């Protein structure tokens, strides 16, 4: 759960439902994670009656009117905010552009460092914030840009103003950007069951086993947290794949951070496919998860 996700789609396409189900495919809390999360909720008086130990990953979904202090923590006596309450769990920010831009900007440090430091005159306090950020937004103010069933009423200036509420540096820290299209009627009326959460979780656990073996010397390491040194060691590319990545970086104007995120995601895609080597098609899929950089933000 070290990769952050942004979903873009029209109203009613299932973004909120998808976000709420992500926790069901993640590995269960380990004892150390459960103790850390419980400690935060206990200090805040948020534990349910009779609950002595949190066994499920937290899912936090604050409203877009939340303040900086409410999101990252603060107050005259510093207290944890939503990002710490989502420690070892998910923080879901629906209607991302509706959040105050300054409030969103304070997420940049926690997403990089897995903690947040609040400074006051008497000293500073550091709260843990190792979480998965899941964000959702419409493609434009009216919500129907690119929708084949409804006409978008927004002009280019309105669309540009809307998406510019999210800064490039924050977007750069989100690993995966995907478009969520409307669900076709044939799928809504299909009587066959789709893939259930338990099956997907088994695939996730298998990919985690690959990572456990890969990082056996650093047990808490995951693909999403690989430093440049680990990336060079574990994400070696064949010449054709390296050429593909070079073209993507040059044509899409991606940053060094986005370059590394593509390699980390490629490594995870290969793990899910039980592949030791990152192939071109693994890399191509990871690059596609960054195309919104170009399509919506003009980079």
TrEMBL record:
InterPro entries in the cross-refs: AAA+_ATPase (IPR003593), CHLI-like (IPR045006), Mg_chelat-rel (IPR004482), Mg_chelat-rel_C (IPR025158), Mg_chelatse_chII-like_cat_dom (IPR000523), P-loop_NTPase (IPR027417)
Pfam family, any one: Mg_chelatase
Molecular function per GO: ATP binding
Organism for this UniProt entry: Polystyrenella longa
Family: Belongs to the Mg-chelatase subunits D/I family. ComM subfamily.
Domain (AAA+ ATPase): residue spans on this chain: 1-184
Name assigned to this protein: Competence protein ComM
